[in-house]
Amino acid sequence: MMNNIKIFFIIHVSRSKKIKKIIQSFFKNKNEKIFLLTSKYKGHTSVLTKNAIKQNANIIVACGGDGTINEIINQIVNTKIKLGILPLGSGNGIAKHFKIPNNIYQALNLIVSNNSKFSDLGKIDKFYFLGNLGFGFENEFINQYQKLRGRGFIYYLFGFIMASFKFNYNTFEIKKNNKTKKIKPFAFTISNLNQQGYNVSITPKASNNDGLLDVAILEKKNIFKIIKFLFFILFKIKNQTLEEFKIKKIEVMNVGRDHLDFQIDGENHKINKNKVSIEVKKSAISVIA
Predict the structure, then answer these.
(1) Of 60, 108, 198, 205, which is most buried with the most CB atoms under 10 A?
(2) 146 Cβ partners below 8 Å, 6+ apart?
């Protein structure tokens, strides 16, 4: 029981009516003060989170997927506000890493327990991420997936097929520990967690509290080796062709381009410069889990 605790639930408009009824019923005889907010468009979650901060929120709950979580953490980073999660998205990679129950009532009980742990965050330019960052095929995949009207695993497959025809290789220059290397990757993922959604992971050894980010790179390969790589990822088989290492900081430059395209936590971003620094921020957020 948490007396005088303010809990703000930010719910995607597509699920708002049903979820609000469940939450209201759950808290009917409890002492917590709850606020139910509906996010109606991309970026609205950020606006609602800022307003919740002004109203002295103690907990802000992301009722959605990784994208909803990302908008919230970019506002509450380095504050005392705790992040709660009701996993209502498609892949729910972040929720799966933290072992948040899919059952909404179990997830609400977890939030009421108020048991939290500090987690690291990754940072690229001005953006923070709790889950993962992708520059390669994963960025084009998210780009194509976002264009689809539906959500769920079948649409992931459609997005994957569409991205297979649209993907173009880029050359990157990466610098870590004062050593520079050029790569032309199919996959280029930097992750803080061991999940990318649907229990699929390219960084299964990633930890959210080790003060490090996990990097996974698959250089340009022929189609058969790419299919083999994807098969190994799906069935959690160790892949020797995947370059893996851990970093506290890395510099990435898109060679021959004047900008950078990437995805963070399932949302596409573009910045108008071709070189960025990516680093880990130790214990930057508190997650109820």
Answers:
(1) 60
(2) 267, 268
